[in-house]
Structure formats: structure tokens, C-alpha cells
Amino acid sequence: MKCRVCRGEAVIDVRRHNANFCAPHFLHHCEEQVAKTIADFEMMSHGERVLVAVSGGKDSLGLWDLLLRLGYAADGFSIGLGIEGYSDESSEFARQFAKERGVTLVEVDLVDDYGFDVETGARAARRVPCSACGLSKRHLFDKAAIDGGYDVIATGHNLDDEAAVLFGNVLRWNTEYLARQRPVLPARPGFPRKVKPLVRLGEREMAAYCVLRGIDYQVEECPMAEGNRHLGYKDALNAIEVQSPGSKHAFYFGFLDKVAPVFDEEAEAEKEALGRCVRCGAPSAGEVCSFCRLVERAAKGRRT
Length: 304
Ligand code: Q46
Ligand code: ZN
Ligand code: ZN
Prior knowledge:
Layout: E1 12-14, E2 19-21, H1 23-40, E3 49-53, H2 58-69, E4 73-80, H3 87-101, E5 105-109, H4 110-114, H5 118-125, H6 129-147, E6 152-154, H7 159-171, H8 175-178, E7 184-185, E8 193-195, H9 203-213, H10 229-243, H11 247-259, H12 264-272, E9 275-276, E10 283-284, H13 290-303
Parallel strand pairs: 3-4, 3-6, 4-5, 6-8
Antiparallel strand pairs: 1-2, 7-8, 9-10
The structure holds Fe4 H S5 (Q46) and zinc ion (2 copies).
One zinc ion (ZN) binds at residues 3, 5-6, 8, 22, 25.
């Protein structure tokens, strides 16, 4: 297996691109893919302050590293979710990364700062854990970015994640979600701009990127992810990809090109409908936002 660029010994094949790479050229390829994504979708510019949502896994730490290498002023943000046997380690990987590079990691802890962990919050609110977790993460990322004066939030969603979410939304024709599935969501009052610079890179490439760069990341998945529908969609897409390399890329980028504009109106209508939460001031469809309701129910759950 020879590197496409230098004909030296290759360490990885990327079938989607019909290419093999040696370590230095693979690392360069990843940087190039991210730079191209940022430029093509006009995600951010070099003068802007970026807050990277960091879980301690390969995607978020790989993304943080790539953005720093590409010269962006990127700080990290991590949330202690209180998930046993998972959250403490995640935070440690994020702290270690920040310490080694002398960069800033902003931290919030659900238990210390809001009095509940994902599991008890979910139980009290009668939600599944991933729903309570996702809701908390979105709210706290937005808040941290707005409070800290950041221009943009970057998340480590890769091509596999986005293709799997798209697959699920298409299977159920969740048009409301399809309207929001973009690599860039523009800023609006109370929400910073959100970008996904890894959409051209797959899961396997992100793992290889971290290993070759010597980035220590959390390998274990969150224990709550088990049985998650998205994992099933990923498996299905992986099986298709083996038969027909490039399918995930064609599926996702074809959607962005040919289908996503159809939902522009729906996305606009949704934007206009939002008021403000009377408790925290965050944008909200109801009087009190879902996060404040979750905090309240978790507190009640503790008292009973
Ligand atoms: S951390 Fe949270 Fe994920 Fe764990 S509880 Fe579900 S959403 S699986 S990315
Ligand atoms: Zn090479
Ligand atoms: Zn609120």
C-alpha cells in the first residue's frame, strides 16, 4: 500500500477517496479537509473566538487540535454530566489536552452547578437520559458561548454522525429536524453560530488522526449510548459503504446540495416563533425553557 502523495509506505486507506496515505500526508489531508469545509461553508474567520464542545473523545479533541493547528483562537468547553464510570474520565482527557497545550478549557458541572446528574434529571423529567443530556448540553454550550463572548461554537460531529442522523430523519421524514441539519447554523438572538467542521472526515479517520498525533482520548463510549437508534443507523450505513464506498458522503452532501434548500422556509418560520425564557432569558418556545423546567423537576425529584 503506497501513499498517494509520496509513494512511501501508507498507514491508512481512505476508500471513499480511493487513496492511501503515509502518516504525515494523512495528517495533512485531515487539515486540508477541515480547512476546505470551513471555507466552503463560510464557518468562521481567523479573527473570531471559537468555543469547541469537548467531550474527551476522538472527535472533539481531534477537532480542537485541528482548529488550533489551522490558527483559530479556540478554547474548549466541557460539561460534567455526572454519568458514573464515564464523565470523570471524559473531563480528565479534556483537562489533560488543555494543560499540555496551554489552552483554556471552560468547565461546567451539572451536579455542582445545577444540582442534578443526567440520570436523575432524566428520571425526574420522565425523559430518556440522552434527551435530558442533549437538552442540557445544548443549553449550557449556548450559555457558555454567549456569556464568554465567543463568536462561534464548534462541535465534533463527523461524516458518520451526520449521515446517521440524516438517515434516521429521512426514515421518519422528520422534516422539522431536516430543516436544521446543516453544517452551519447562523447566529440568532440568544444563540451563537454553530459549526461542524468535521463533516468531511469519518469516524475511522478521526481515530487515526488522534493516534498519529499522539492525542490521548477517551475510547469508551458513554454507557447510556447502548441501544441508541443512531448506532443501528451507523451499522446500516457502514454495511452500504463497504459495498459502495463514498455512499455516506454522497448521501450527506447530496442532501445539502439538492434537498436542504427545500426546508429553508420551515427553518425561517421556526426562528421567528421563539420568545424568551422568563427564568434564564434563553430563547424558548414556552414561558419557561426546557432546561429550566428540567432543573426544576430534578430539584423536586430530590425533595420527594
Ligand atoms: S453523553 Fe449524553 Fe451522549 Fe451519553 S447520555 Fe446520551 S447524549 S450517550 S453523545
Ligand atoms: Zn506520503
Ligand atoms: Zn430558562
